[in-house]
Design brief:
Residues 98-234 form the Response regulatory domain. One of its GO terms (molecular function) is protein histidine kinase activity. InterPro entries: CheY-like_superfamily (IPR011006), HATPase_C_sf (IPR036890), HATPase_dom (IPR003594), His_kinase_dom (IPR005467), Sig_transdc_His_kin-like_C (IPR004358), Sig_transdc_resp-reg_receiver (IPR001789). It is a single chain. By secondary structure, the protein is an alpha/beta fold. It has two domains: 3-80, Histidine kinase-like ATPase, C-terminal domain (Heat Shock Protein 90, 2-Layer Sandwich), CATH 3.30.565.10; 87-233, Response regulator (Rossmann fold), CATH 3.40.50. The protein contains nine helices and eight strands. The strands form two sheets. A five-stranded parallel β-sheet has the order 7-6-4-5-8, sandwiched between helices. The protein has a three-stranded antiparallel β-sheet with strand order 1-3-2.
């Protein structure tokens, strides 16, 4: 895999330095001139730290200068070119997956369903935990079980956590995995405490990035608003 060298330069019009002063510039706790600290402050440690960090990244740092004509500080750091991610192959792994969205808020439910349909999933929706549990039972009995549930945490009567706990008590041939959905980020510790022992759908970084890239491209602000495709309702 190829790479490239990034070079950054910063030029000033300050007092400048002699060659002898430049030799001491990147040493810890030293300045180019003993009077510099008194006149401008500082200990000279910052450049020593910068030099060490640059070397750890496989790069170089330096400076050129002339007295009374200013200085040029430069840094060169090598970078590798990352391989492109096979996003289409990752998207293909979602196609045909049967998913149930459980959310009492109609707009939020329809938006989430529309996004999942764009990934090629087979999506149904339920407006409550009770309705969702009935749908899961029917799908399992029909031999076409749900692979994944996306459950809103904050719902009236039976909330997302209770829905998942009741799901575990069902006698199913194949239990679906789940993702808990919430707009309340500060409640995650409470959610984790109640649901940690439950099965979870694994979403690794590459899969998450793949979904976000696909959705951000499809629902760009430059695109016209598209009608939502509503799924079956139980």
């Amino acid at each position: 895999m190829g790479g490239f060298l990034l070079r950054l330069e910063v030029q000033d019009s300050g007092i400048g330095m002699t060659e002898a002063q430049l030799q001491r510039l990147f040493r810890a706790f030293e300045q180019a001139d003993e009077s510099t600290t008194r006149r401008f402050g500082g200990t000279g440690l910052g450049l020593a730290i910068s030099k060490r960090l640059t070397e750890l990244m496989g790069g170089q740092i330096g400076a050129t200068s002339q007295p009374e004509q200013g200085s040029v500080f430069w840094v060169e750091i090598p970078f590798a070119i990352a391989a492109p991610r096979p996003q289409q192959l990752q998207l293909a792994s979602f196609r045909g997956m049967r998913v149930l969205v459980i959310d009492d808020h109609e707009d939020a439910r329809d938006i989430l369903v529309s996004l999942l349909l764009e990934l090629g999933m087979r999506v149904d929706a339920a407006a409550s935990g009770e309705e969702g549990l009935v749908a899961v039972t029917h799908a399992d009995q029909a031999g076409d079980p749900y692979r994944l549930l996306m459950v809103d945490w904050k719902m009236p009567e039976v909330d997302g956590i209770d829905t998942v706990l009741r799901l575990k008590s069902l006698m199913l041939h194949e239990s679906p995995e789940f993702l808990m959905v919430t707009a309340y980020g500060d409640h995650f510790p409470q959610m984790k405490q109640h649901a940690l022992a439950s099965p979870k759908f694994s979403v690794n970084q590459s899969r998450h990035q793949c979904c976000m890239t696909h959705w951000s491209q499809h629902y760009s602000v430059t695109r016209r608003a598209m009608p939502l495709r509503c799924p079956r309702r139980w």
